[in-house]
Amino acid sequence: MQRLARWRANTEQEEERDRRQRPSDPRAPWSGTWWSTPPSDLSRTTRDLGALGPVGLWAVEDSFGWDHATVRSVVVPGDAHVYEVDGPDAWADLCRRFPLEVTASRRHDWYRATGASGRWVIPDWSRAVEDFGAVHLTVDGYLQTAGRAVAVTADTSAVLAGWNPDETYWLTDPAPVTVAERPWARRNDTWVEDLP
Known about the structure:
There is one protein chain. The chain has 196 residues and is α+β, with helices and mostly antiparallel strands. It has one domain. The strands form three sheets. It has a four-stranded mixed sheet with strand order 1-9-6-3. It has a four-stranded mixed sheet with strand order 4-5-8-7, with helices on both faces. It has a three-stranded antiparallel sheet with strand order 2-10-11, with no helix packed on it. The chain is globular. It starts with a helix and ends with a strand.
């Protein structure tokens, strides 16, 4: 998949640049990339909560103040191979199976958030797609794992960063089949279906 190959190339370029330009002391006042998600232009889904809409309207790690959303119902293929991140062990396993080192680009932010230093990795999504069509983060997985240093090997850790609870990133094309589309709006800090 071209998007994942492009993402990997960009991640490697960023890591190489930051290795040359940034101090190795994790306490240095630098900031870089925080997220460990797949590329943001991939399709993402969450469960439907009926009249409340999808979980994705309500459970957002980094809200940018959005007041409008378009929601599409999808049909998940019956043969979809989805990796479940239901806690730190599952996140560590995914990072261990498909490691991509990001120490230079993440060390300062992840040290400030976790107090841990050393080598850092994220899953190499361009390799994970060979085994999985999607990766789903359960609500429990989010609560147990997000923002923490998770040991991957004796000298390597990872942070689940930038994910939303109950979020599934679809690594493969085509994206799930669109069945319906509904506009939603946030009014008085509550999401409601924006009916005409």
